[in-house]
Design goal:
13% strand, 40% helix, 298 residues, four-stranded parallel beta sheet, 10 strands, single chain, globular, two-stranded antiparallel ribbon
């Protein structure tokens, strides 16, 4: 009897069309226990509906990541995974080390510190409060990362997701690495704050769930970030930094010590990493360029 196969999120299956990979394996006699969908699969209703329907046709069980956090349609994700793969092949110890100069993690953090609305780019994350939304669409299985974390951290995750609510900082629940932040005597949850049970955040995610256009999604995030920032529900606590509301957006007025440290590391890591930090899918689309949709491959 063939051992059932789990298809990892790293495989990158995010939409109904991508499940053709699973269909090909099934045709070859491979038993598939489940498919853990790509981070971006959490972001929009129509994509999930189509993917669930295709999985039902194939007889495949779908699972969603619940507590990871990545940029919406991040163009560097595959290369980031490839970097971890090379490190693992070389010995594995550096793959999770906080002392590794990982240009992709640094670029991600620099982006969030520079453009605070990107804290609302929550690919791969389902709030405990939103489990029922996905369940109503046919997703019955969710995966929480963090098995190597401390027992109290795992207990907090389990309690939040079993209870369907968390009243603290959403970053308390996330598998999100902020490299070298310990050098400043801080943790990820101390530098980034996003109130999990915010009514503004709940309304924003519900609206975003219906929006497929990626540029429009950015506009919605900018507006929501400004309202949450004004209400004290979104904050960045980088020592020495200053963030202000300007023309309806949260703007970095003065970089903090941690961001300056990250920029220095990116400069050392090379021009390509610095380019990753500057890169943004938030720029307006040039005239005539078709809108990207949820489920599209970047």
């Amino acid at each position: 009897m063939t051992t059932p196969l789990n298809i990892s999120t790293i495989t990158g299956l995010r939409c109904a069309e991508d499940l053709r990979v699973a269909e090909g394996l099934l045709a070859d006699g491979v038993r598939i226990a489940k498919v853990i969908l790509h981070h971006d699969a959490t972001l929009c209703r129509r994509n999930i509906e189509r993917t669930v329907a295709e999985a039902a046709r194939l007889g495949v069980v779908l699972e969603l990541l619940a507590n990871e956090n990545c940029l919406d349609h991040c163009p560097y994700r595959d290369r980031h995974y490839a970097l971890y793969g090379r490190l693992t092949e070389a010995g594995g110890a550096g793959a999770t080390s906080t002392r590794l100069i990982d240009p992709f993690s640094l670029a991600c953090v620099a982006r969030r510190l520079t453009a605070p609305h990107t804290l609302l780019e929550l690919a791969g994350l389902v709030r405990p409060e939103d489990l029922a939304r996905y369940g109503s669409l046919g997703i019955a299985h969710f995966k929480c990362g963090g098995r190597a974390r401390s027992d109290p951290w795992i207990d907090r995750i389990a309690s939040a997701y079993v209870g369907g609510r968390y009243s603290g900082n959403l970053f308390d629940l996330m598998m999100y690495t902020v490299p070298f932040v310990d050098l400043f005597g801080m943790t990820t949850s101390e530098i980034f704050f996003l109130r999990s049970d915010s009514e503004t955040l709940a309304g924003h995610l519900a609206e975003l769930f219906e929006e497929e256009d990626l540029f429009r999604r950015t506009c919605l995030r900018q507006d929501t970030a400004a309202r949450m920032f004004a209400a004290g529900e979104l904050a960045i606590n980088d020592p020495g930094s200053s963030y202000v509301l300007r023309r309806g957006q949260v703007v970095l007025e003065r970089p903090g010590r941690y961001l300056l440290h990250v920029r220095g590391l990116l400069s050392r890591a090379g021009e390509s990493a610095a380019g990753a930090a500057r890169g943004s899918r938030d720029r307006a689309r040039p005239a005539g360029l078709p809108a990207r949709r949820c489920g599209d491959t970047p």
